[in-house]
Amino acid sequence: MKALPLVVVMVLVASPVLGAAGPADGATHSMAPDETELAQVASPSNETIHVLDIPSSELARSTVEAHHVDLGPSLDFSALGASGQIQTGASIERIESATDDSTRQQLILDELNTIEQRAIALQSAQRSAIERFNADDITARDLLIELARIDAEARALDERRVALREITSETPDFSISSGRLAALERELDTFTGPVRTHAVSVVTGQSDAARFSVRTSETGFVLSVVTDGEYVREAYRADLRNRDQNTVSYEEALDIVAENYPTIYSNRAAQNGTNVISAGDSHRVQINYRDGQLTAYVDSGTGRVFKESQTRPLESITTRDNASGVRDGLALTVDRTYPGGPLRIQLNESETGDPVDANVTIGLEASQESTLLGHTGSDGTIWTVSPSASYTVTVIRGNSAVVLTTSPTPMPYVGENATDTENGTSATVTSTPTESTESTELTGSAGSVSTASRAGPQAPTGGG
Predict the structure, then answer these.
(1) Contacts with 375 (C-beta within 8 Å, 6 or more apart), sequence order
(2) pTM over the 0.85 mark
(3) Superkingdom of this entry's organism (predicted)?
(4) Looking at the structure, do residues 287 and 376 belong to the same domain, yes or no?
(5) What is the crossing angle of helices 101-134 and 140-169, to 10°?
(6) Please, what is the Cα angle at 342 between 338 and 346, to 5 degrees?
(7) What is the mean pLDDT of the chain?
(8) Is 40 a member of any domain?
(9) Most exposed of 176, 300, 327, 365 (fewest Cβ within 10 Å)?
(10) What is the secondary structure of 44-112 as a DSSP string?
């Protein structure tokens, strides 16, 4: 779909939505959709929210694992933060102490060159981390921590970039191209994301343990997590970039995002719903919509979305595709989703519909091992991120257990991979009581459903 007619306004101050971006950081465009049209738009809850992800043919590895506070990385992040502040402070003090304007100007340029060189080094470090994970030389935990470390350094470098921009404005008869500063900001953006930020919060003990989905290709990755009542994801695809060309305008970038994310775009907010920042070899398009926020980066050479982050409140997420099983008065429902997507597990009394609080485990069907997710709580609900392959959900209450085996739904890809049907839609459900030996064949909405029994339930053991 094409972007609807928009009123373009040049923003001359930092937008509260975009954070620290200032007037020297490139062209910022704030857009508002037609309010009459918005009134006719239905809620996106039951519509497809497309995502940037890795085609099944290019998927190298995928895991879903729980991560928690870790003293070693926690100390490393603390040291990294302190080091960044010290380096920035020392750089600015050295510049301000220059004995003449010529020396001051040269020091500013030297510091800017240093940041640009570090950005190149971070690109290499990120690529190396992905390659080592794909080669099974490091674990998913190691990869996540390395990506989080790169994120933290990139943010520290951007703070130094902003400090240099400010001190440059105070230097007589001297300036740095706003395009150069903005291009550097966009490049540092490549290494940051909300999932990596949350990973830092988890390993440093500022947030509770969480299950992270990690999916990689040869040069890209997708991370996702459920935390604080939200589903958060970020994706980066280096293979969709072409730095040798610069042919896509910011208007075209908005059209590209509108076509790739039609549901999000059609439900954008009437005020400050869309912002576009164009700099260097990419365009950052941020959309605030009724049920979340999208930040998509469009490469100026390929005209493709190569980086994405999305945040969606769990309360806004529903599904039309679920697997369910009923046994011994318990009704277990799994709202199926795509690999790495927001997975909802619901447990109720089958007759009254009242929510049931019980422990829930999940594990890959092929591994025969499960891990404890937690308990469903007073509302009978627990959220996590979906595995990338068939998985088994087990709920035990007293002497009864319900075991449900199902699989992810197809990935709702953006762009050229939108028709890739990565996963099937069949599901098998097994409900296991503690007494009785009868077996019944049923038919469910997600495919073949069966109920069976055995002498007594066996809780799955811990694992990945």
Answers:
(1) 357, 358, 359, 360, 382
(2) no
(3) Archaea
(4) no
(5) 170
(6) 110
(7) 80
(8) no
(9) 365
(10) GGGS---B----GGG--EEEEEEE---HHHHHHHHHHHHHHHHHHHHHHHHHHT-SSHHHHHHHHHHHH
Q: How many domains does the chain have?
A: 3
Domain shared by 357 and 264, yes or no = no
Residues 6 or more apart in contact with residue 138 via CB below 8 angstroms? 129, 132, 146
DSSP 232: E
Look at residue 47 and tell me if it is in a domain.
Answer: no
pLDDT tens track for 157-196: 999 999 999 999 988 888 888 889 999 999 999 899 999 9
Which ranges constitute the DSSP H helices of 170-249? Answer: 178-189, 194-203
Task: With a cut of 60, say whether residue 197 has pLDDT above it.
Answer: yes
d(CA 163, CA 358): 52
The pLDDT assigned to 89 comes to: 81
430: domain CATH number is: 2.60.40.1930
pLDDT-derived band at 463 (thresholds 50, 70, 90) equals: very low
Residue 21: give the domain boundaries. 1-35+241-301
278 strand-pairing partners: 27, 283
| Element containing residue 278 per DSSP (H, E) | strand 274-279
Report, as an integer, the average pLDDT of 272-278: 89
For residue 461, tell me if it sits in a domain: no
Choose among 322, 332, 314: nearest CA to 384. Answer: 314
Distance of alpha carbon 434 from alpha carbon 452, whole angstroms: 10
Question: At which of 236, 262, 290 does a domain end?
Answer: 236
Phi, psi of 11 (to 5 degrees): -95, 125
Describe the strand order of the beta sheet including 9-10 as a list of residue ranges. 9-10, 27-31, 274-279, 282-289, 292-299, 305-313, 230-237, 220-227, 210-216, 61-67
The alpha carbon dihedral of 337, 343, 348, 352 has a sign of negative
Note whether 359 and 342 are same-domain residues. Answer: yes
Q: Among 134-138, 340-344, 369-373, which stretch is predicted with the lowest mean pLDDT?
A: 369-373
74 and 178 both lie in a single domain: yes
pLDDT computed for residue 94 by the predictor: 86
What is the model's pLDDT at position 418?
61
Residue 201 or residue 59, greater confidence: 59
- Judged against a pLDDT cut of 50, whether residue 233 lies above it is answered with yes
Domain co-membership, 209 together with 263: no
Q: Which of 354, 365, 355 is nearest to 388 (CA)?
A: 365
**Domain-ending residue, one of 181, 203, 236:** 236
Same domain, 187 and 151: yes
For CA atoms 453, 454, 456, 459, give the dihedral sign: negative
Is the model's pLDDT at 447 over the cut of 80? no
pLDDT tens by residue, 395-424 = 988 888 899 999 999 999 997 666 554 444
The answer on 17 and 81 residing in a single domain is no
How many residues are given for the chain? 464
